[in-house]
Amino acid sequence: MELLIDDKTKQILKKAKSIVFFTGAGISAESGIPTFRGKDGIWNKLKPEELANFNAFLKNPKLVWEWYQHRKEIIHKCQPNPAHKIIAELQNKYEKVSVVTQNIDNLHRRAGSKSVYELHGNIERNYCIDCKKEYGNNVPLIDGLPKCDCGGLVRPDVVWFGEYLPQNVFTSAEEIAKKSDVFFIVGTTGIVYPAASIIYLAKNKGSYLIEVNIDETDISISVDQSFFGKAGEVLPQIFSQI
Ligand code: OAD
Predict the structure, then answer these.
(1) Which atom of ligand 1 is nearest to the CA of 38?
(2) Active site residue 120
């Protein structure tokens, strides 16, 4: 069945120059990457305070490191799905297409998106907690522990609970959200701050908000238009009509 898009939304999407896609774990669900909340969510099975937390890393770096290596192996086996792909393709159609993502899975970049703001980091990067030297995926291991040349521990470049978001990335994401004509919110509960504050910033600056989610969320009430369904099905259907 064809997705129904009202004329106002169609016109706005036709005229838009700058589109932002604010994405969360739900956009990667169809690629096979588990989300955080919901019945099969990661945080239902594991305790974030034992894994996604700096003190947990200092207490048991091997466990935390291995958990992230395990997640990375899962992610490497997954491919960008039609939702990631259509967002990347839209770069040929619109003047400016930006992705502001809470995901660390790198799938937007793998799909070909060029302007990607990773609010929670990227699992493909690592850095030394002492000298801050940056590492890709080749981190030297000494007795199973990720060690920098300086002797410091190397950690994944992801934002853990209680940590600040990368300030420059966050500020740039705020700027493009403020200037966007259309702001899509795809596959996120929108309850994790400060990331979610960008949604309301876009709204206050007059951007047209469109949500894509399999379920109603806390943000549904604040958006101009919600489309309920899988991101990998709904997004291509929307843009096939524009
Ligand atoms: P959640 O796991 O909280 O929510 C996933 C959202 O995606 C839910 O609203 C689902 O209804 C929706 N969803 C699931 N499958 C979908 C599909 N195929 N198409 C469209 N929507 C779908 O994930 P986030 O909201 O992204 O932070 O979580 C935000 C942050 O909380 C994460 O970045 C992570 C976590 O703690 C850190 O690790 C710092």
Answers:
(1) 2
(2) yes
List, in order of start, the domains of the chain with CATH numbers.
1-33+80-120+164-242 (3.40.50.1220), 34-77+125-158 (3.30.1600.10)
Q: Is 179 exposed, middle or buried (0-12, 13-18, 19+ CB in 10 A)?
A: middle
Q: How far is CA 205 from the centre of its chain?
A: 22
Query: Which residue in the list 76, 84, 108, 120 is annotated as catalytic?
Result: 120
Count Cβ neighbours within 10 Å for each residue of 59-98 and write b for 16 or more, e otherwise: eebeebbebbeebbeebeeeebbbbbbbbbbbbeebeebb
Report pTM.
0.96
Per-residue pLDDT of the chain (242 residues; tens, 9 = 90+): 789 999 999 999 999 999 999 999 999 999 999 898 877 777 777 777 678 999 999 999 999 999 999 999 999 999 999 999 999 999 999 999 999 999 999 999 999 999 999 999 999 999 999 999 999 999 999 999 999 999 999 999 999 999 999 999 999 999 999 999 999 999 999 999 999 999 999 999 999 999 999 999 999 999 999 999 999 999 999 999 99
In this structure, the number of other CB atoms found within 10 A of the CB of residue 44 comes to 12
What are the residues whose beta carbons fall under 8 Å from the beta carbon of 177, sequence distance 6 or more?
Answer: 20, 22, 100, 183, 198, 199, 201, 202, 205, 207
Pocket test for ligand 1, best of 23, 43, 214, 238 (most atoms within 8 A of CB): 214
